[in-house]
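Hey, does this match?
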Amino acid sequence: MSTVVLSVRVKRELKEEAERLGIDFRAVVERALEEEIRKIKRLRFKKLVDEALDSMNVSVEVWMRTVKESRAER
């Protein structure tokens, strides 16, 4: 896995407090970025699904019931 250097400015007090507490900056930043990426992907997927349902004139409830029934048939 390759890595890149990420530079960010934060308040001096925030950095000093984090250092005093022994916070692993890299782990915190990676975790925050991963969480934000998942959140954005979920929102974009939800938007696509909503747009698709709107174009098909199908409610979310009807779509969910149809998916559940399809799964039960397997």
